[in-house]
Amino acid sequence: MTQIQERSWIEIDLGNYTHNIRAIRAKLASGARFLQIVKADAYGHGAYEIARRAIREGASFLGVANSEEGMLLRYLGITIPIIILSPCLDTEISTLIEYDLTPSVSDIEFTLALDRFCEQKNVVRNVHVNVDTGMGRSGIYFADAGGMILKIASMKNLKIQGIFSHFAASENDSSYTRFQIQRFESILKQLPFTPEYVHMANSSAIVTAQIQFCNLARVGILGFGVYTDHSIKHHILLKPVMVFKSRISQVKHAYPGDSIGYNRTYTCEQRTRYAIVPVGYADGYDYLLSNKGEVLVRGKKCRILGKISMDMIAIDITQLDSIAVGDEVTLMGGEQEAVRCEHLAGLYNGSSYELLCQIGRRARRYYREEGKTISTSPLSRRGFVSKDFTDDKLGMIIESAISQRLQSKEIGSIINDVILKRFFIDRDREIHYKKDFLHTVRFEDSDEYPDYFRVYTELTFTKILQSDFFYVACAHNEEVLEKYFMRKDVEYRWLLDSSVPIMTDSFNVTRVCVNNHTLHHHVHANHTFLEIRCFHEILTKYVGQEVCFSISTQTYYPRIKKQLSIYISEMTKEAGIHFIYPQSVTSVETVPFFSGKTRFPAIHRSAQAVKIHTASDEWIFPTSGVVFVYASVLKKGTVVIY
Ligand SMILES: *Cc1c(COP(=O)(O)O)cnc(C)c1O
Fold first, then answer.
1. How many angstroms does the Cα of residue 335 sit away from the middle of ligand 1?
2. Which of 151, 393, 418, 523 is spaced 20 to 30 Å from 16 by Cα?
């Protein structure tokens, strides 16, 4: 782990988490699903990484505390259902709906407001009804639950996907737990319907209680390898997921009578060698561990001497040889009892839950599996520093920032994938792109000019209309063609072979349409080009809108050329290129050159056609295209067109 530069850090062992989840799932009734609780940043373990691993391990839901936590997971690309476990405020409703978060409901006013909002938006959303069967916290008081559930069930824009309750003391009070179970079951029995999900168990209850009528369990702390009671150890083997570490930053001596730390709460009775570790209560190492906690250095226990400071602690290393600045210190986590979370919290009569949440406030998390670091998180509580993120993650952040600004995920992804590259690299400030691009080129034998194919082309695509006119252009040489590629007002370009005189008979625009309106065209020509200006008064109405273009032409192509190239010159989403040819063409080889996500589009061959298609929703970069290399039977005699 040589890359660690921080004073303290957290190691999250995803392998251990996986082990715990599998052990916990083995305790569930067959067919029961699980919800992974990732509230409070997954008890300090990192909500995103835990969510991802939980999903891999089969989680059906995630549980968070509020809509902010849910929204963050959605931004990061998590798509499975997310339940907000505590009651939401009216102010959270629009976020709930926008990010598809499932509220738990227990207040009738809130539920009505939610139903109204959904009605306005014309959506139906799932809710989970929270019933208080004796926890005495959130939830509908058990005696009122039946009636209120029926009221909620009658709301048109809400669907009760689940009904749940929460235990007050499932880790150590089995009789009260049974009492709550009975209450919950009797409420459910009175209902005229059974919701898709019924859930009650938290981590402890999964191990301590049998709840036959539930089909979902909410897994929290046990997944992180922290026991809620000594007795649980006999039922399940869990491995701690989080380890909090630091390094020794100073080694020194004290003599009898010397005191250590604030308020002189520790005084040395003999010569003491001690070390300073640069973490304190501001890092989440609890103040109440003053003179109580122990840490591990080289696997050996060392006492805390004196009070925990905001940013430093002193540890006794008298019993250890050759301790040096830079040596690793384990403050919490791992297998050894002295530094297990449960043990440390027990020393000051605190809560393991709280200790997990507060530990590592200033630490970067290193996600590990089988001894290797697989990802890291930024230092928490730090403003945005782009180098905290990998390129992938940064890309995701930029993309979602842009999408949010534009209120369109699609445009956000175009800009991110493609336009930004052109913007910064090519410095091309105008954004053009095409969609549903289909270019069909049909060769036919020509009786008048046997050395040539008669060519019919048809191009259709959708694009935002930039102006009330545009050009179709035919170039007589590569140089002129190149110029047309640079021009943004040219929607179609064709290179006419130099053996064919350039005139409207040899390159004939037969029809140009925009949204099914046939446009007028006007030809301007010289010996190197034909420029066909396409226009119609109706186009002014469509400027700035996405419209459907269709352009048909007729031209000639020399048989002896033996190859035909079709280019895609703009950003294009979903492209098809069809080449249809007569029987005199004896073979066709297809050489696509595509850039974008996929470099190899699908190619379908039939008797007299080759059809190339990219996957739907896929962006193709400019400078893509295809070369068809063909062999054809030459007719006798050479005919030159005049
Ligand atoms: C936090 C929470 C849990 C998880 O509890 P653990 O003891 O960590 O398993 C389950 N249900 C609800 C409603 C919660 O708020």
1. 24
2. 393
Catalytic annotation, pick one of 39, 245, 434, 463: 39
**Residue 135 in contact with residue 167, Cβ under 8 Å?**
yes
Looking at this protein, which amino acid is placed at residue 251? Answer: V
Tens of pLDDT, residues 302-315 = 999 999 999 999 99
Measured between alpha carbons, how far is 51 from 73 in angstroms, rounded to an integer? 8
Asked if 70 and 41 count as a contact pair (C-beta separation under 8 A), the reply is no
Q: How far is the CA of 193 from the centre of ligand 1 (A)?
A: 26
Distance CA 481, CA 71 (A): 50
Residue 20 CB–ligand 1 contact under 6 Å: no
Residue 100 contacts residue 73 (beta carbons within 8 Å): no
Q: Is the CB of 536 under 6 A from ligand 1?
A: no
What residues pair up with 366 in beta bridges, in sequence order? 11, 376
Q: Which residues of the chain register pLDDT less than 50?
A: 1-2, 637-642
CB 325 within 8 A of CB 334: no
CA distances to 465, 512, 535, 543 from 538, in Å: 12, 14, 9, 10
pLDDT of 421 reads 64
Sort residue 535 into left (φ over 0), alpha (ψ -120 to 50) or beta. beta
- Going from the Cα of 383 to the center of ligand 1, the distance in angstroms, rounded, reads 30
d(CA 565, CA 550): 20
Whether 39 is catalytic is yes
Which of 198, 199, 202, 353 is the best mutation target for the ligand 1 pocket, counting ligand atoms within 8 Å of the beta carbon and taking the most? 202
Ligand 1 pocket member 307 (CB < 6 A): no
Atom of ligand 1 at shortest distance to CA of 104? 13
Distance of CA 344 to the CA centre of its chain: 36
Beta strand 272-277 pairing with 313-316: antiparallel
**98 CA distance to ligand 1 centroid (A)?**
25
| Contacts with 53 (C-beta within 8 Å, 6 or more apart), sequence order | 14, 17, 18, 21
pLDDT at 426: 59
Atom of ligand 1 nearest to the CA of 353: 8
